[in-house]
């Protein structure tokens, strides 16, 4: 990455508070041109709970200072109850958070250094609330860039997928369990820090229990889901994600559902800003964002809206790996979405485990067998699935799918005689029955190389009780046939000649998704089942005319000193003597010091997902976060632990929170809750 040290305008940086109408003070960090009082500038707001003073300080300094140097005010605000802001953070995307955001926009519009025009940008949480606040139509908000976010909090977020409960739901809950134990910095808030900290420790609660009480699409999830009424958003939106991210589907739904000027960008990246994007190639995203802001906040003709609505990275075939530095491919584009140039090509499933283009179905041999096929997957299917949302650290992408396919029904094409490229959302239609009233189906699409290595390209899950509705699920009638559609993740992928395409179907996918209450036998009727691939023809002349993205740039990073290096592991541990298997994930981020505020930070995260062979009551997920802040003789430490188990009837949560000042434990709390399963 190229570090830019000299900008068109000199930068002034300050930390301050915004006082809201109810007296709550929100902590804010502002980078703006030194001459902005004389020549006011638009503001770019990023509104997060991730602590501007320390946890996102490195990233913020490189992006917000960059925008400031190019004639904007980069503004980072900590949500109520986080960082140095007053209050307690009790859940994600509460109406209070959104109302506070509207007040922040009004405050920004009234500053003498601001023109009154504001844009919102954010990745993940900040991408969510950018869309949600846009739907409230504050007059100051003129444009949004939303990255790695969603329009649908139930169907396409970290909590559920296809009505199935995701393992990342526990992982993410543990992230916020830890985040809510972090104290404000005494250097800013003074002696109030201890009182504010105690209030957070006592009041934030166990979010996982709240979420598990909403296992279907109810009003809890509809709140903040802008897909409920896309017409509420009336400012331009630029939606960005990556194929390795958990949120790429939302880009395509936003392009299809919004009525405002909009653009979409999907690279090979995980849950990262594209200028920091891994797997690479990273791009000059900050330059791209300036083209967007200049157009909508400064009324400059940058040409950005003359370019295609959608640009995506067409990935080439690669061997399977849990981590990629880069994904080979090329940029392709579509002038609109849905694209009239995408053709849904059907492939038929056969009892002989073939995947046949429907155009050849009429040439099936006379003795072709349409016998139904059954599968009762072991719980081991999913150990090599990676995370629902990849951060590319520790190595969390799916590994060789041959380790999974022994417990799945597998259908495969012949070796391809020519390249096939897909762009969009693969769909699988199944005629299916189950021998239990609650069942799930997991479907994987893989690229099979000439050496038979299997790289997962896309996948989808469906809780079969949600076959007709996420809001009103219905139990299955064992033995009854159902026709269901399973939506896989959007993808742009080339399958080269000589490779094959494989479709794998399993009845479990642990720990990516929590299993059904009991072992399930699925019966697939091939004659009523098919795969639909969104095939796309290459457009070489059009692709050659696409303007190239610039190389990544950023403002100088903050100075930091490494005290202890990081450590990352991702291990599958199989204890054959006890028939017990554990997926263990360790992400020790080490210790580093932010030199300008003389603050040392460290965190160590451990996750274990366990089952005993064939025993569905043995499923468990356990997480532990150990966090420490230190400056001189001031030291604060917290340890959070969560254990989630289940029976056929309920989920059980046991959690503990311990907080320490120096070496003395100053707070302890525990939870033990049982929550009934609701057709999950």
UniProtKB/TrEMBL annotation:
Pfam family, one: Peptidase_S15
Classification via Gene3D superfamilies: alpha/beta hydrolase (3.40.50.1820), Galactose-binding domain-like (2.60.120.260)
Stretches assigned to the Xaa-Pro dipeptidyl-peptidase C-terminal domain: 290-555
GO molecular function: dipeptidyl-peptidase activity
Keyword annotations: Hydrolase
Domain of life: Bacteria
PANTHER family: COCE_NOND FAMILY, PUTATIVE (AFU_ORTHOLOGUE AFUA_7G00600)-RELATED (PTHR43056:SF10), PEPTIDASE S9 PROLYL OLIGOPEPTIDASE (PTHR43056)
Protein name stated in the entry: CocE/NonD family hydrolase
Taxon lineage: Bacteria, Pseudomonadati, Pseudomonadota, Gammaproteobacteria, Oceanospirillales
